[in-house]
Amino acid sequence: MQNVYRGIALALVAIFLASVARFYHRDTGFTALIAFPEGHEYEAPALRDIPHYQYPQWASYDGQFYAQRALDPLVRDPEVDRAMDLAPYRARRILFSWTAYLLGMGRPAWILEAFALQNVASWLILAVLLTRWLPLNSSRALLLWTACMFSHGLLWSVRFALLDGPSLVLTTCAILAAERGRYLLSAGISGINGLGRETNVLGVLAQPFLGKDRPSTAWEWPRLAVALVLVVLPLLLWEDYLRSIYRSTIFAGGDQLTLPGTAFASTAGRVLAATKTAGLFSPTGLQICVVVPMAVQGIYLALRRRYETPWWRVAAGYALLMLLIDRVLWEPATGAITRVMLPMTVGFNVMLAREERAVPFWWWFLTGNLHLIPSFWVMPLI
Length: 382
Known about the structure:
Blueprint: H1 2-21, E1 36-37, H2 45-48, E2 54-55, H3 63-69, H4 78-82, H5 87-92, H6 95-103, H7 108-129, H8 139-149, H9 152-159, H10 164-179, H11 183-193, H12 220-246, H13 262-278, H14 288-303, H15 310-324, H16 327-330, H17 336-340, H18 342-352, H19 358-368, H20 372-378
Parallel strand pairs: 1-2
Helix pairs in contact: 6-7, 7-9, 7-10, 8-18, 9-20, 10-11, 11-12, 14-15, 14-18, 15-18, 18-19
């Protein structure tokens, strides 16, 4: 049966790649994945010389800004800044603009292709990495693996060439290193990952703060201190560099936190009220499939506390962050909440593999993975 499960997984990978291939156009390559808008209002001069796919203004998304940032990886071209909103905020999240620049070997057209496809590469890498915790040797493991790989947040990141998929891969690598006792390597990966998105530094929770492996001898505490330095140092150095460019505007766009639980409560109330009016099977009703599973995952992690498990610690950290996220990120239509909470979603499914009783497993699995329903509207797979 193990070969059957692996065959099904390979078939799902093939379906995913076939779906990605539909975004290829002869003249513009895979740039349809980036969602550039029509016109030149948000385009730097360097971008205008590169053939790229364009959508109506309303269909554009944030990946366009980070793709243009990749054309100017040292943040020296003021024309690139003028081509985007919140330029200092975009510049802080520079890591995957750097990787696109390197993969594109500094050639603008190649850089755009690299930026468009690095989410696809991240998806494939994650598909392999997750088999460490979800080995494809049972129907349950296959279901949980599928729920991670085709989650709403991950497919949204692939569809619009965003930062969340590559970030998740590095978080997964940090957890893997921590499980193997390579704590400084884990901290270094989390620190570098913080250059992709500030919340990625929560990968530091893979360190053994809690559980039976927490520091217990004198020499382990200095090691933990060094790990903490490794986590924050890359971001501090980069922001110091950006301060020399942006001065007092360096932290523009960083006010995305609010009082605990308020954004979730207001969003849930609004979505439920709108669903009563429009109906459960309306586009508005689909928003429930974004809000509810986030709450279910957080509740499960609170009830099934496994302090000794790095995946639980990281996922629980994101569950706490979820309570602080503001209403803009909670807006279901933007897909932001499922993207930002991807480590929680994966951690939830990894922990769910340990659920022994069938009824609780199916209850948690179905309610915690309702996000799979709107996933097929994000990126049709057939």
